[in-house]
Amino acid sequence: MAAFLGYSPSQWVLLCHRIPRLDFGLESRGNTFQPEVWEYQQTLLVLSSLSALCLLLSLLGVSSSLIGWCCRRRGNHEEVDDSDDDDECDDVTGGRRLCCVTWGTVGAVVICCAAIGIGFYGNSEANDGMYQMTYSLATANHTLSSIDILVSDTVSLLGLAVSDQLTRLEELLSRRDDLIIVARNARRQAEAVIDLLSNLPLQATPPLSAAQLTTQGNYTAENQTESAVTVDWAAQRVGSLEEYRWLSYVLLLLLDLLICLFILLALAKETRWLLLLMSSLSWLALFLSWGSLGLETATAVALSDFCVDPDTYILNTTQLDLGVRQDVLEYYLLCNKGMRSPFQQRLTQSQRALSNIHAQLTGLEAMAIPQFPQAEKSLSELQQVLNVTEGNFQQLVALLNCRALNKDYLDAIKGLCYDGMEGVLYLSLFSFLSALSFSSLLCTLPRAWDQFHSDSGDYDDSDDDSEDPFGSHQGSKRFIQWQSSI
After folding, report:
1. Is the whole model's pTM more than 0.85, yes or no?
2. If DSSP states are collapsed to H, E and C, what string results for the chain?
3. What is the pLDDT of residues 128-143, one digit of tens each?
């Protein structure tokens, strides 16, 4: 379990993590997050298949309801009774049936609208979590890029100083062996700093040697650390995928909302063609709801397995993929007070070397300028390079501290495992409620269609009996239905 400072798995994560796992052979499997292992993928597919089973049960229920409605409708057409008392009794029964059908449909629509509200909230929560994760990854990438830039500038300046100013200075001081020794000593110290900074363990790509840097004179962006490029790619990838996911759920929610609203409109206006169209779309929404529930179930379970112990998976995966040393990853991901920085030794040696170079240049200014005035320009340029290098070095020390990157890591994990997990669970609840609502609607809408047909027949009869389409016959029929419903 993740026990590092600032993060602990939520109760929802622990609850989903305890869900039993079965493979295709119905054998129990572990719940360790291993997305690349086929056995673990089987457990997620089994959990997703539960929604397919629910879809099958829904189809059986709706089919049974439709078959019963067709049989009952055929039996009603075969019954012929001319008695006034029986007609009045049928009117009362039809009115009660109309009331049940109407309220059943309205209740299913209300539940569906409530599910849509839950879905909008869950989609917003998931989007907030993904945005926090993307922002944290982008911030971490900015920090790593800043480290690369500082290393690049520092190594480039020192390489240029070694190949240019120090070389000219040695030529000018060639007549004094003691001064040549001091200048060459400063050259060796500068080359040592180049080797130390260009071989920081944070870098996963093979760095240039001091000789190569001296001959080339610069340190290009091609020598940036692979970890920075990978973090930037991950941030962009997560951001683009989240945009498509958010838009897909918004379209699904709007589709469900429009279906519910137009069903109410069809019931109010008694429009058969609109009711038929919404019934067809309800079938589509039913399949989409159960399908999204299966995807959300697998996502919630896999996310809970990751969020229970994220540092272990990230340490193992990053070390294998990038080849970064484990002590460097642990330093940034855990950032405990008792942990020693893996850069401490190299930074200390670099600081000592820069101090020695500064002392040697100061000594050369005192001894060489009186005898070699032309060396003053080279020494002045070397002092400027050294001052810039020391400023960059102080910024580099601050950026290599684990606090900034560890904070970005914790923010990313919290966004994914808190808001992201909560959003997925709310979306799962939305899918489940909407699937139940559309199953109920598909059972009640045909009966509403039958009622529209009866009302139309009554209207036609009244039109034949009298010229007034709003005559007393149809008015009495509607009054009896309204009274029986009360």
Report:
1. no
2. CCCCCCCCCCHHHHHHHCCCCECCCCCECCCCCCCCCHHHHHHHHHHHHHHHHHHHHHHHHHHHHHHHHHHHHHHHHHCCCCCHHHHHHHHHHHHHHHHHHHHHHHHHHHHHHHHHHHHHHHHHHHHHHHHHHHHHHHHHHHHHHHHHHHHHHHHHHHHHHHHHHHHHHHHHCCCCHHHHHHHHHHHHHHHHHHHHHHCCCCCCCCCCCHHHHHHHCCCCHHHCCHHHHHHHHHHHHHHHHHHHHHHHHHHHHHHHHHHHHHHHHHHHHCCHHHHHHHHHHHHHHHHHHHHHHHHHHHHHHHHHHHHHCHHHHHHHHHHHHHCCCHHHHHHHHHCCCCCCCCCHHHHHHHHHHHHHHHHHHHHHHHHHCCCCHHHHHHHHHHHHHHHHHHHHHHHHHHHCCHHHHHHHHHHHHHHHHHHHHHHHHHHHHHHHHHHHHHHHHHHHHHHHHHHHHHHHHHHHHHHHHCCCCCCHHHHHHHHHHHHHHC
3. 999 999 999 999 989 9
